[in-house]
Structures
1.
Amino acid sequence: MFPHQIKQSMVAILVIASISTHIYAAGDINHSADEVVLPEGTLINVAIAKEVTSKEAKPNDPVEFKVTEDLVIGGQVIVRKGTPAIGSVINAEKRGYLGKSGKLAVQVESTTTSDGQRLKLRAAKGREGDDKTVSTAMLAGISPAFLFRKGGEAKIEAGTVVPVYVAEEKRFRVEGATLAPVVMETTAPSTEQATVFIYRPDKWAGYALEPSVFVDETELARMDNGRFFAIKLNAGKHIVRMTDEKKGYAVDMGPGQTYFFRIGMEMGMWKGHGKITLDDRERAVKEIKKLKFIGKDKIKAPTLVVELAP
């Protein structure tokens, strides 16, 4: 990344860890003499197949990727170059008034092995669940595609390379010239729910406005000034948003994980509008301790909204 490029546009891609320009190739056949093992945490580079811009994108829009090189383990091609990878938009904000830049965050979710199995991918090399609090850093890691242009739209150009990691171990048997999957013992999926805190700091600007907050298609509450609430959700992808479907985050929530969303106000041409930001735990907890639980008259989904301490 050259200094003059950093001043040209703003993009956040769901990537954590160091950047590599090649595919990780290594073998691990310790489990069985006739098995090839694809370890969890193996690096795979994928590239954006079609340009994505903050002007057009909205949360949960599909994003197309392609694997950039063969992934080889123990002399066997596990994932072939050119294999499609599936991803989606986490968050997108169009450029705003007074030179406000656009923002864009995307994630890579899965690809396919050479024998046709779905292979889950993630941004971090470490195991899922190591950190039960999901922060802005996890959803907006910095990569060479993180660029900035004052007042411009965020854009990820076709061909931009994104390093991601295998999210699950896979084992194979070599049968002639092909691979066959080895059935592994599976544990029952966790039924623990994700916890989501939504709060609005006590601020003077726009204090009389009460923007609505939604999860998926359900209106949760009219968010008045200086209040908070929490919800419990089953693990899986959910969209937490304002009334405008483009103002929100599409997050694949893990069991037992905790998320914090901060509600604020932004001034438009004629009036203020609600905005939502995925926040870090440390700041969010400090802020929530100063606030009161949202009034019952503001709650629109009483079966979902709960009062919890973070």
2.
Amino acid sequence: MIQRSAIICCVLLSLFYLSWRICFTLNTDQIVASVIFLVVDILTCFSAILFVVSLWRKRVPSTPFKASNQFTVDVFVPTCNEACEMLETTMQYCIDMDYPHTTWLLDDGNRQEMKSLAERLGAGYIARERNIGAKAGNLNNAMQYTQGALIAVFDADFRPEKEFLTRLVDYFAEDSIAVVQTPQTYYNTDSFQHRRLSEKEIYTDQDTFMHLVLPARNNWNAAYWIGTNALLRRKAIESIGGFPTDCVTEDVLTSMFLHGKGWKSIYIDEPLAYGLAPVGISEYYIQRLRWAKGAFQIMSSHNPLFQKGLTFMQRIFYFSSVSHFFEGGFKIVYYLFPAFFFLFGLVPVYPYKPVIIGMLLYVGITRLILELITGRRINLLLDDIYSVIKSFIYLAAFPVLVSNQNIRFKVTPKSGKESIMWQGVVGPAIIFGFNLAAIVLIIFNPYIVASLGVLGWICFGWCFSMGIIAFTACYFCFEPFIKKTK
């Protein structure tokens, strides 16, 4: 009852805030900057509304029926250029699962050592000479040579638990189930996306998605396959013509097509396989850029709002998923506005004290409401730090909205030996640099803040906090290098 009341309050407050922003806060003297800032506010508010609305339905644990017959299962491990040692470990974990199955190594690298590995482990081996369609094409090719009623897919670095198949197969006793998905969980908790909060608590920037977003969407039959750690029904995949190859995030697009055909998905928020998270900023950049490009491909070529067969809520949630990356890139406006205010005199809202106070109150109140709604299961500060890191990554994917031709599927490096890519660091560095410049300016000329009154102090506080957040983001990017030099 308390959670639903908080959700209603959040939605009403956001709608009221947007109405007020549109009608009373535009600065007509700087209309271009004012409209840009308003658009970002609208995107952010609607994203928050969709997030809390998805939590409206109470989480009901999915309980499978006992399957009357045993399913035939094929386990696919697609690979392109991953190390043999890693694949040997993954393959052994897959082979050791306790439900009868056949494990297949799908080698897009067409490497002799992979063939020898499969033969030595007693697994099947499938290679192809023309690597068309990246991972999706690899999976489609393997379907031609296998017959299992169910297909488990694991990325080359994921290690399934022994009971993975036993735990999931019974869900397919219901004929309408196409996908049963489990979370992506990682064994290298010292990776770039992990932060140790205490002895027992570790933050990862996928926590909100894995443990709040997907479980919530599961209640609306809108949870989707995330590429690995899942079990899929062959018949369902065949009903949509195989895994779609025109998108580098084939998992989301596959799920959308399945839901459009009336199939159901189930998300089990239980770690049943453990993989390798991006070790440093280089691997993180490559992975997140691919995700953003895939989302923009879907938005431009298969817009969920117009996808046939989806329910209203499925359309909304799929659109929310792909537009999240668009919103993430636009958040740069929030990160640079306070610095631009002091450095260039940019004022994208009506410079009236009640307007500034009203905006500040909205931000503070909605954050408190989100804490209440989510049961404090999100870490807003660390989310902000990683949001700064991701903002320029998402911005780099924007050209895909105009042209999505010839986007190469780039596998996330698993070696951890990649150098620090400047593309991954330049965003946080720019944000930190501008905010630092503004802070230095104010230190040497404090009259600037004093002369502006409440507006000046709020913008200075915003600028100072953004400087700290951006500095921390830069530190996260260079942390492995810093540790090596000690």
3.
Amino acid sequence: MNNTENLNRYGLTLTYIVESFPVNYDEGYGNISVAKKIHRLNGEAYLFASRQSLRFSLINYLVEQNLIKYAPLTKEKGVIQYDESELKKYYYEEADLFGYMITTKGEKALTRPAAVRLSHLISLEKYYGDYEFLTNKNFADRAKDNPNIANIETSLNLYKYTINIDLDKIGVDNNFPINLNKEEKIRRVNLILEATKYLYRDIRGRRENLSPIFVIGGIYHIKSPLFSNAIELDFSLEKPTLNFNPINQILDSQYEINSQKFNIKDFTYIGILKDKLNIKPQELNIPIYSPFEVIDKIKQEIYSEIEKIL
């Protein structure tokens, strides 16, 4: 890779905050449904949803909106996987964006790393052990029988997750080989970004809104999830308060490519939904937009960056 290529901005990263009830569950016991959670050394528990569940929700949203179709599957080779012959006919967005491994007994597997990578959805406030008590009383009354009882772990919480997109890998696959045109690459990146605006997850009869109330990120020369560990909230006030100290430390930093230094702040956008978080705009010396405005600004930049890569 020459010096000119190294100065292209390949790495798109956005870190989101969303508000939701639990959207991922573990295997329960008895009549109790257990929300997925992780524990820290101090014993505190935090709810989370796996990156796989986020991937499912993104793909499912795009399919339900008739923006893409599921990639065809096969189990002829003893495992359920993408149909290689169908990918040769049309390079489906699902395989392009999230990668694949196609195995054949006795042969080397065909692999394609994901161009879109997701973190887990991690709660920003610890879990306090809340439960939702449920019965099917209406059915029981109608059947003149005793109701069944269930308990579901629940919590209304703020979560963070990060999405990274390697712009130089979108629409490129040496296994077939494939190199899609610029317009199609841009369309596929924009599909994912647009989906994050209106993302939701259907779970246990609920439709949980995963639309962002906060977003930070941009397109950089490095492929790092820059802000994934910089999101902290203080819950001691009436509204959650965003701590800008770790964010500002990153914004004031530089990275170096081929002896050239770049300010992270110069490529970063911040979007906050009004009145959802306590903020002090004077703590930041870059403009603040709405989350949707940030996503739209990133989409505007993608065209010129993919043009340079081509």
